[in-house]
Design goal:
The complex is a heterodimer of chains A (about 220) and B (about 550).
Chain A lengths: L1 H23 L1 H6 L23 E6 L16 H14 L3 E6 L6 H11 L4 E5 L5 E5 L9 E3 L7 H16 L14 H18 L8 E2 L3
Parallel strand pairs in A: 1-2, 1-3
Antiparallel strand pairs in A: 2-6, 3-4, 4-5
Chain B lengths: L3 H7 L30 E4 L2 E5 L2 E2 L5 H10 L2 H9 L2 H9 L5 H8 L4 H9 L3 H11 L8 E3 L7 H14 L3 E4 L7 H15 L4 E4 L3 H9 L5 E6 L4 H6 L4 H13 L3 E5 L4 H4 L8 H14 L4 E3 L15 H14 L3 E3 L10 H12 L8 E4 L18 H11 L10 H21 L7 H8 L12 H13 L4 H9 L4 H16 L8 E2 L5 E2 L19 H8 L11
Classes of the chains: A alpha/beta (about 220), B alpha/beta (about 550).
Chain lengths: ~220, ~550
Amino acid sequence: MEINEAFVQKLADEVIKQLSSSEHSNQAQAQAGWMAPKRDYSGYKQAVKGMDPKEVVIGVGPAFQREIGATICGLDLKEVIKNIRAGIEEEGMVPRVVKILKTSDVCFMALEAAKLSGSGIGVGVQSKGTTVIHQKDLYPLSNLELFPQAPLMTLEMYRAIGKNAAKYVKGEPVTPISAVNDPMVRPKYQVKAALMHIKETEQVDQEVPIIEWEG
Amino acid sequence: MRSKRIEILDQRPVNKDGFINEWPEMGFSAMSSPYDPQPSVKVVDGVITEMDGKKREEFDFLDQFIADYGINIDKAESAMAVSALEIARMIVDINVSRKEILDLVSGITPAKMVEVINYLNVVELMMGMQKMRARKVPGNQAHITNLKDDPVQLAADAAEGALRGFSEEETTMAIARYAPLSATALLIGSQVGRSGVLTQCSAEEATELELGIRGLTTYAETLSVYGTEQVFTDGDDTPYSKAFLTSAYASRGLKVRFTSGSGSEVLMGMAEKKSMLYLECRCLYVTKGAGAQGTQNGSVSCIGIPGSVPGGIREVMGENLVASLLGLECASSNDQSFSNSDMRRTARTMLQFMPGTDFIFSGYAAEPNYDNVFAGSNFDAEDFDDYNVLQRDMQVDGGLKPVSEDEVIRVRCKAGKAVQAAFKALGLAEITDEQIEAVTYAHGSKDTLNRDSAADIMAAEDLMKKGITGIDVVKALAENGFKDIADHILNMLKQRVVGDYMQTAAILDKDFRVMSGVNTPNDYQGPGTGYRVEGERWEEIKAIPHIIDPNDF
């Protein structure tokens, strides 16, 4: 929770800083349209379609582990990836992580990952923690499993997501991960979610291909 | 040293809510932004060549769609010549009829609409809604969902919700692939509680359309539109594709409404520095232009965003009024948890409750909020009695009524049994008597038995593969002891052939008679006119439980 508080405080500070600067000069006002400058991803290795039928591709969002280091509830993104990978490996499948820069929409992210995946199963993870398990031949806004309430996610759930993604590859009947729900998530987190998503969306660059991601 | 009073205040629920200062560059401004355009229009040879400061060649696809289909071009120049202040005054003037306002407003642009709404305070917005709502009698809609996607509980909650007075019921799923099973359970359960209730299943658009075409739902609502081009294209859509989808539903005789609401563009990081009200006006003009009879709006699932900025809740009511000013049916949100403070969440709902809208809630959680898979509604099953008392206190028709425990138990049990029989006959998932019993007496999914969700999902896939339709459901019920429910569902399917319920703001009474903005229009024009709560309906509202009996003393 400390990470969470610290992160939120940092975001809030950023907002206040930009708000107050926008009151003072026109130049600063123009800059207030940005939370962080766009990062250059040239030189990264372009991701290609996998051939391994055991492969599950995890597609992460544009700001992942760069502009944003932890999910909305403060989980370190490195740990998030570690747990999804572990879940996939425990079921005998092979994980691969890529970064998707052309969209910040989690469904499209997951679908891109699924299309790259040797098995056709992919997992999309936004930097704020929202996650989807997708399959390459489904409609973009459809999915195998969706975890919309990022503030309620735990590392154990990310591990279970990895396991279930792997089970879909194996063609076993999969029991979906039990839904969790907190009706008060919205008043508490929606503004934070917006700020994090704005930060992620700022890094979107439609011209940049999907890249291999080591973290 | 800290002030003990401030310490107490800091701990109040309202201080758990998220607030932020206005930040127009990121779209965090409710009613107006310094970057909003100035209203203008130019018409040449019957074509709008300039709108809100932009020349036609600078239009994005929303501007173009609105200019071509959302505005009454013949009226545009004359309507734009009337000042925004004058239009605002006409809206609250009881001597000006709803029809005159609709006629005038049909010619104004989105930026002008923003200007008009900015002249109205919340009481005036409510006065406007009282006059501009499409249907004479207000209505209410329920969310019917549970965390386990349990079809038996869906049917029971649908039956109870229908009994309590909801005219429409909407479901969605924790696991999307349950959709066909959920739609079917909702359809059956609703008709057990009260014949004539409309049902829908919020799902991915192609799935939702197929469920509608098959007759497993009786209306559609989740056709989402957005106020900026970027958000639209991010969702793989355009106003034209939405118009096409609308006509796909219309071709099969299904009632359709769109969904939009302020804050979505902010949440997606693509607000183009415009105010929430301006972007929502664009959505509503697209909705009208696409030929949809109505909208679900009022921020909806993004309510935390307008709720976080100054004037945000005024803006939400403002956008509801814009929908009604454009002649659209307005299902006015209140459907998403909004505040940790009971005071704040109630106050927010009063803006729609007091004047009455076509649907005050576009999803009142008819289950406990922990089971609400839309992530929580502003009111839930535990608020039923509070809501009924509010209706009684103020002599306001909020669309619900008090019910007896006996009736609740009876309809819940019957709904469970009907779904059990139908699923058995259709070769879907097995439902045991123990499950029905648990659901009958349950408050929520914490009180029910677990189901085999892998098997249920297979049954849902089977239902689609076998091509099961509404008629198959009718047959299954009719041949297995539920002829009355079969008749009700058959009557719902007939509506699609007749088509009258596709008219603006249509609902059905228990005898399947349509009540819409066309055959029962809102005729409010000041005291002594319009809908008044009286007669049988007033008696119904008065009859709350826990009344003191003087004979007891």
